[in-house]
Specification:
Layout (H helix, E strand, L loop, with lengths): L4 E7 L3 H13 L3 E7 L3 H14 L2 E5 L4 H15 L4 E4 L11 H10 L4 E8 L5 H18 L12 E4 H10 L8 H11 L4 E8 L13 H17 L3 H12 L1
Parallel strand pairs: 1-2, 1-4, 2-3, 5-7
Antiparallel strand pairs: 4-6, 5-6
Helix pairs in contact: 1-2, 3-6, 5-7, 5-8
């Protein structure tokens, strides 16, 4: 597989931090695509200025489609531009980009696999979100009958675009915070291997979060219900894969 990588940044009103993220990614020699997810005019103007000054790709969505919707639009756009892989990075600077080289090196060594960040938290992590992640971990292990997916919520990952396009062409995925979980589980069901790189994650006090504790948790709960139901007819195949890997 030829390896042609670009970074995708979903952006909804994170104009203040987007340029810093772009500079860091371009310093690694990466092409960059920002998906403007229906941001306000100030952010839109900022992103257009970044495009003009930095030479990035900019995909503008007229209406806010949610983080998942923006990422999916970006993934399909990069596939159409003949990139083979995409590294997903948040616009708010939450991810430690010092781990980017390790993430990319792992993707080059395993181009058929998904390479995902595995969060390493500091004391600033909100405890409610931390405990909620553990519930999702257990749910994902049930849905895959495997412990391979160590974290399904970190939005810092490298996707091989061909199998992602295959998935998105036949299945409509969640468009909000449920997206990161669902695409990883369904790619695992599709036969892909998920690998992880430890990645420090920070939660700055003045950071802008679009996670809604009520609506997003409801969507995630409903997602796990659907995925567990979808796992049931896949049990024989998943068990065969598990036993084959253990051998």
């Amino acid at each position: 597989m030829s390896f042609k990588l670009a970074a995708i940044i979903p952006c909804y009103n994170h104009g203040d931090t987007a340029d810093t993220v772009v500079v860091a990614l371009q310093a690694k020699g990466l092409d960059v695509l920002i998906v403007n997810d229906g941001s306000n005019q100030a952010t839109t103007d900022t992103l257009r200025a970044i495009k003009a000054s930095r030479g990035i790709h900019l995909l503008e969505l007229e209406q806010n489609s949610g983080k998942g919707g923006a990422v999916m639009a970006g993934l399909r756009h990069l596939h159409q531009l003949d990139y083979s892989h995409a590294v997903q990075v948040d616009a708010d600077g939450q991810h430690d980009l010092s781990k980017l080289s390790e993430l990319i090196d792992s993707a080059k060594a395993h181009p058929q696999d998904v390479i995902s960040g595995k969060p390493v938290y500091g004391d600033d992590v909100p405890k409610g979100r931390l405990y909620g992640r553990y519930l999702t971990h257990v749910s994902v292990w049930i849905e895959t009958l495997s412990l391979q997916i160590q974290d399904s919520m970190c939005g810092f990952r490298v996707y091989p675009l061909a199998p992602v396009e295959q998935l998105l062409s036949r299945k409509q995925l969640g468009t909000r915070m449920d997206f990161d979980i669902e695409i990883l589980v369904r790619l695992y069901w599709q036969g892909l291997t998920i690998r992880h790189v430890d990645t420090p994650v920070s939660y700055p006090e003045d950071g802008l979060s679009h996670f809604n504790a009520i609506s997003d948790n409801v969507k995630i709960s409903w997602l796990h219900t659907r995925l567990i139901c979808g796992m049931l007819p896949r049990i024989p195949k998943l068990l065969l894969r598990k036993f084959a890997n253990e051998d």
